[in-house]
Backbone:
């Protein structure tokens, strides 16, 4: 190993536990804490020449971790705002197709949440973004035929999930975008 790697390893060994403790006391989720610690040491690696020697390295890393945490919280706040906005949009979409019974709307939401991430993304691209098969194919990086098959299968799984929830409401996500409808 070179001098740079040796210096980083020594600094990492000496400061990892205190930095992890600092972050864990400020993050409600261990997963978020792990991300913040990883980002902190990534920055330390890139800026290794700026890190003061000895015990001051830990203080420098606290400052970096503090800024990474601030960025993390800003990102979380943005995600909460987008989620709230999406929740309102979804409520409006459900109201637009005539689902007035909150129990039925909840069954639709539960069935949708029960799908795999890939199925939710695929159905969302069609229902919320209004993309047709060729546009979905471009987003997914596959052929239009493959996108059509994946969409068909996702709709089938969604339909089964709705039936399992004993709901016979036709949700927005199973309708075709206007660009694919025959006139």
Residues:
């Amino acid at each position: 190993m070179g001098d740079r790697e040796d210096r980083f390893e020594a600094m990492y060994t000496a400061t990892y536990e205190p930095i992890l403790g600092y972050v864990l006391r400020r993050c409600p989720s261990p997963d978020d804490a792990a991300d913040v610690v990883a980002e902190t040491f990534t920055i330390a690696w890139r800026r290794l020449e700026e890190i003061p020697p000895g015990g001051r390295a830990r203080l420098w890393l606290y400052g970096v971790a503090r800024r990474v945490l601030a960025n993390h919280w800003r990102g979380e706040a943005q995600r909460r705002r987008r989620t709230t906005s999406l929740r309102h949009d979804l409520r409006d979409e459900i109201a637009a197709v005539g689902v007035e019974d909150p129990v039925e709307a909840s069954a639709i939401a539960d069935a949708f949440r029960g799908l795999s991430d890939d199925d939710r993304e695929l159905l969302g691209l069609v229902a919320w973004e209004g993309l047709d098969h060729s546009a979905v194919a471009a987003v997914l990086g596959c052929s239009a035929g493959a996108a059509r098959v994946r969409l068909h299968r996702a709709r089938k799984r969604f339909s089964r999930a709705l039936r399992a929830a004993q709901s016979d409401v036709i949700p927005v996500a199973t309708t075709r975008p206007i660009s694919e409808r025959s006139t």
Q: What stands out?
A: The helical segments are 3-24, 30-46, 56-96, 102-113, 117-127, 133-140, 144-164. The chain has a mean pLDDT of 81. The chain has two domains: 3-80, 101-180. The two ends are 69 Å apart (CA to CA).
